[in-house]
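User: Before I run my own analysis I want an independent prediction to cross-check against. Here's the chain; please return only the structure tokens and, at the end, one sentence I can use as a sanity check.
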Amino acid sequence: MLFKRKIYTSGSSLSKLAWQKFLKNKLALAATAYIALITLISTLGYLITPDSTPFANNQILEIATQKPGSKLSFLLVRKNEIADHKNILQRMFIGEKNAYIKTPFTSYSFQDDKIILKDYAPETKDEDLMNLEFSLADVCFPIKTKSLNYNYEKDHVIFQDIDGTEKTLSTSELQKLILENNIKDERFLLGTDRYGRDYLSQLIIGARVSLSVGFIAVIISLIIGIILGSMAGFFRGWVDQFIIWFINVVWSIPTLLLVIAITFALGKGFWQVFIAVGLTMWVEVARIVRGQIFSIREKEFVEAGKALGFSNFRIIFYHILPNIMGPVIVISAANFASAILIEAGLSFLGIGVQPPMPSWGGMIKENYAYIILDSAYLAILPGLAIMLMVLSFMIIGNGLREALDVKTTTVKS
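Assistant: Structure tokens:
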């Protein structure tokens, strides 16, 4: 016969039973794996993005709205400035300024000390394409002056480097350097946006914003919600009445309007969005913490703590809170999803993360007009990314709620 009853076996804590139950939930595990993958990709950031410039903002207007999978040829022209080399952590988190200017072309040829390019213009006939001329030395090196000395008899170019060093190289040597280092083919897996930026890079860096806003907003909401909810549930009386009044006031204001008001007060920007979203999400946490403390405030272990002379702070944070964190964890997963949606909405309205920093909501705003054109994917891809991220966190929240309900287990008798 099968029946349910409470069982407590040695070595089987509630947290261990919850973890075992969560591991059996295949859908929740898949959602967790997806979140972990997106977190890893966004953390590596500029180390793996095709465009490693800050904010993935290398704009090449000639190649705007290229289709996914497009392959183009570029001439990398060295900028006449000293390269700012960064270490691996700096490149990972803030990117590195590009030392070259990318010039797309359809064909090229060498002539004396110059390279001649046929400009890239997909809707222009070949005979109408413009010719672009670049000095060989100017393509390969950061030169100090544009006045280069070319000796036709000796077939050599004489110039000064940016650091003042004089160099003399033959045209054949310069041509070889260009063929090896400065002519590159690049494939755009997800195409480019209307500014000619690599769209895959924009999506990857935009994931950082959504995950960062969710994480920091949840941390802020947990700090405020747990403190106020604990005080209301433990001390009761006028403290509870005042906190409940404050919660009801905040609760009565529509969340999006409150976020917009806080954003206007703090200003537009990256960190302001974190604070604005976090300050509107603590209410649910406070209500849950207050209700849970109400249910266990009179338990024997709380009375024992008071009898032993423990401080209220120690009783709340060391004895009560660890026993009520299950529901708090579940609501945190839901708040994470809500924070992502709120940030995307703010960025779409233009009062969230500001350009040139990419965000999924901002990408939808920039490209939503393409939905009725042949480049609808420019708006669909960030929208799909938001949907999958929010769905994953909601699935994880549901999985945690089921896993944490481990007080009863089916056993055979």
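Sanity check: The beta strands are 2-5, 70-78, 100-111, 114-119, 131-135, 149-151, 156-160, 166-170, 183-188, 409-412.
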